[in-house]
Write a structure and sequence with these properties.
The protein is of the alpha/beta class. The chain folds into 3 domains: about 5-95, 3-Layer(aba) Sandwich (Rossmann fold); about 105-345, 3-Layer(aba) Sandwich (UDP-N-acetylmuramoyl-L-alanine:D-glutamate ligase), CATH 3.40.1190; about 355-490, Protein-Tyrosine Phosphatase, Chain A (Alpha-Beta Complex), CATH 3.90.190. The chain contains 15 helices and 23 strands. The N and C termini lie far apart (about 50 Å).
Length: about 500
């Protein structure tokens, strides 16, 4: 293990940067980080870890001189700390570059990629490997409820009791689960972060859950977005393993054209999988009276019995099957162990996260902002709460959500909701001609929808209309102006 060093992270309170800071702190390094604010859940998690958190950006934060400065991908070239580090000749790295060099070297990565489901699937993989006793490391862009934090070093070498087919012998490098984000790495290296995590080792495992145009600020066209995933598929080497959703036609075509690794497909019963026969197949069952999501699993046409977990919905069953396939075929974890892990899986904060139920009104927080994620989340909550109204409260805040790219798809995405309240755009820097038309979206959704001018109006509307037995889904990838706490207070 390397000697302790002084490490400073510029833009530390993002989920990825915060998780990386925790890894350095766990290794014993002297860690500090700066950001404009330290909002929950990452801000309190950083402070609880003992990381020095300084608000705002100032070159004085880099004194005494750090051994390594890590610059977040949201930090621009002219940021005063980034500029000082560059002009002073300090050692610099991107988040993904630092993770690769400092923590992935000498490990067996399990990289989870895709437009949707990365955080939940990564957390499921880590929890399955923990349950199997493999002591994995992990790096997850969220706060897992089962695990102590979003990042852990794990054991660098582990004698496996059930070596997987990809392993020549037991006693190999310890597994390390990485959520592989397709967003760019840093201002001087604009490639997707996941290309730093797939290192070309013959025993690597990668999951690709889906490929659907997103991050329009980085990838202006669908072709540009898909091209980076094609590079990822091609990069996993012979001897490696790719686990892919057979339902996705774009992904199927990429695999056919570019894959060198062994490919294992998964799907749900009834999916259109084209000319692909999935090895891992799930069959949905209705959510039971306890609110648990059951499903049946078939591997290679053989029944593995019934499984159940607390996370509801078809998208979570897909995530679970992907995690089980990767852990079984890549790391030798028995399906029976995965069954035990999923039964105790508690999920991730901000993913169908029940914040409270004042007066019997269930209030959920969810990160969903892409129309596919919105639709899947609302369907899952509707299946769990079959009675009462379902309120969808949506803040279009991400670069993609603020644009008209998915104007029509949002109309369909809110179909499961009884009532839809739309906040104003969360970004002011989108050209007017490119903006999502919130008023038009409300008109297209009909009488059940309203475009609200501010958070106050949303709180007042829900406090007036919600009744015991109703469900409220707050959908945003940001803090939403403190709406969550205000809603709980108003409803109570």
């Amino acid at each position: 293990m390397k000697a302790p060093r002084r490490v400073h992270l510029v833009g530390v309170s993002g989920t990825g940067m915060g998780s990386l800071a925790m890894l350095f702190a766990a290794r014993g390094d002297d860690v500090s980080g700066s950001d404009l604010s330290f909002d929950p859940p990452m801000g309190p998690a950083l402070e609880a870890t003992g990381i020095r958190c300084v608000t705002g950006y100032d070159p004085a934060h880099l004194s005494p001189r750090p051994d390594l400065v890590i610059v977040g991908n949201a930090v621009r070239r002219d940021n005063v700390e980034a500029a000082f580090a560059r002009d002073s000749g300090l050692a610099q790295a991107s988040m993904s570059g630092a993770l690769r060099a400092e923590f992935l070297a000498g490990r067996r990565p399990l990289v989870v990629c895709g437009t949707h489901g990365k955080t939940t699937t990564s957390t499921m993989c880590a929890w399955v490997l923990v349950t199997a006793g493999l002591a994995p490391g992990w790096f997850i862009g969220g706060i897992p409820k089962n695990l102590a934090s979003g990042a852990a070093i794990g054991e660098t070498r582990r004698r496996l009791t059930s070596p997987a087919p990809l392993l020549a012998e037991p006693g190999q490098r310890g597994p390390f689960v990485v959520e592989g984000d397709e967003y760019d790495a840093v201002y001087w290296d604009k490639k997707p972060k996941f290309l730093d995590y797939v290192m070309g080792d013959a025993d690597e495992v990668a999951i690709v859950t889906s490929v659907e145009h997103d991050h329009i600020d980085i990838y202006p066209s669908r072709e540009a977005y898909e091209a980076e995933f094609a590079k990822l598929v091609a990069r996993v080497p012979e001897g490696g393993l790719l686990v892919c959703d057979a339902r996705d036609p774009v992904l199927r075509a990429m695999v056919a054209a570019h894959a060198r690794a062994r490919v294992v497909f998964y799907a749900l019963d009834g999916d259109d999988t084209g000319d692909v026969t999935p090895t891992w197949l799930g069959a949905m069952a209705a959510i039971d009276d306890a609110g648990l999501q059951p499903f049946d699993l078939y591997v290679g046409g053989m029944s593995c019995g019934r499984f159940q977990m607390a996370a509801p919905g078809a998208h979570n069953v897909r995530n679970a099957i992907a995690a089980m396939a990767a852990c079984a075929e890549g790391f030798g974890v028995p399906v029976t162990t995965s069954r035990t892990a999923l039964a105790t899986f508690q999920g991730v904060k901000r993913r169908q996260d029940l914040l409270g139920a004042p007066r019997g009104i269930s209030v959920y927080d969810d990160f969903a902002h892409h129309p596919t994620a919105v639709d899947e989340t609302l369907r899952a909550l509707r299946a769990r709460h079959r009675a009462g109204a379902l309120f969808a409260v949506f803040e279009p805040r991400s670069a993609t959500a603020c644009r008209a790219l998915h104007q029509h798809e949002y109309t369909r995405a809110f179909g499961p909701a009884t009532r839809v309240l739309l906040a104003p755009l969360g970004r002011a820097n989108v050209p007017e001609a490119e903006r999502l038309d919130v008023a038009k979206l409300a008109r297209d959704l009909g009488e059940k929808a309203a475009a609200c001018p501010d958070v106050d109006t949303i709180v007042e509307t829900i406090a007036r209309e919600a009744r015991p037995g109703d469900t409220i889904a707050v959908l945003s990838n940001g803090a939403f102006g403190g709406l969550h706490a205000r809603l709980l207070e108003a409803l109570a």
